[in-house]
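Supplementary Methods, section 5.1.

A reviewer requested that the exact input to the structure prediction be made available. We therefore reproduce it here, unchanged from the version used in the analyses.
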Amino acid sequence: MRPIYLDNNATTRADPLVVAAMLPFFSAQFGNASSAHAFGTEVAPALKQARRKLQGLIGAAFDHEIVFTSGATESDNTAILSALAVQEGRDEIVTTAVEHPSVLSLIKELGRRGIKTHLIPVDASGRLDIETYRNALSKRTSIVSVMWANNETGTIFPVKSLAKMARSVGALFHTDAVQAVGRIPINLKTTDIDMLSLSGHKFHGPKGIGALYVRKGVELRPLIFGGPQERRRRAGTQNVPGIVGLGKAAELAAAHLKKEQMNIGALRDQLEQGILALGCCMVLGEIKNRLPNTSNIAFEHLEAEAIVHQLNRNGIAVSLGSACASGSMEPSHVLRAMGVPPAFVRGAVRFSLSHETAPDEIDRVLQVLPEITAKQRALWRACQERADASSQPAELL
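The structure derived from this sequence is encoded token-by-token as follows.
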């Protein structure tokens, strides 16, 4: 039986068409794009084409607003550090308690350097506290960084309105859109968003390549210094195969976005309804306003690690939550921020689909999961009974 992969928020399989597009640039067209001879100049059109394809996917006004990077972590760091450098007299950051570690780890380090940060809380459904956000904005705010969609729950944040509020106080607005790009429609021309981070491997492109959208007119201080690549905004020899692969992935995502959004959403709902029918579990996150591919389900009194392990033994790959936090026995910062009840917080399992997910794969999950959870629940009850017995006074035993 073929393996079933339902951990697409961690990474996706590179589309075979993406791989095919990249291959010539490892061999026949191997030139350095910065070289003046034919080997270099022949790859320049491919970079231009890739930039335009990505521009189309995210609705940027100009292709030169796209800066290629090594991935979203670099893009996030570049955006935040640049804003602090160019916004004189502004030394505060506004972000959320549920951001990706690529933002929160940087924020923590900046706090040690004296930068004040406002961490905006979320409610039990993962929705942002808008009033607290509004009150945190001031003339000292340098940059606001709010993810477009949460990687663990799929909850979508109202980044358009948040960006508008940030602009009203003169602050720059950045969004980590890693989970949103290629999964929901994005048109940056209709927003006040100044910077956006994305990563190719989240929408069937290669790993090690990403981009930072920088709105025309927004000053960007480079994170990496060296040569004149990317209009002197990101130094280093350009990853031509990766850029070409990212462009192809963007092209494919744009072509099939609406159809796949509906299909994936229908499969996700089928999976979710089947699991909820088992009882003693709950969906985490905003039900009506989330990514179509993501379902985070918490099982009462059960250990997610055991469920994930048993599913893996059945050839089904899912996640404990964020892949960046896997391996930890502690509940993720996202679930803690949402105040998930203690009986559920350690039983959260994330299922994340893609356009490659097939209906029979969903059927297979719903076939094996009831037995897995039933066995885990029986073990929990046995443990509870032993605990209750051991707590009885000696004369009653």
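DSSP finds 13 helices and twelve strands in the chain. These observations are discussed further in the main text.
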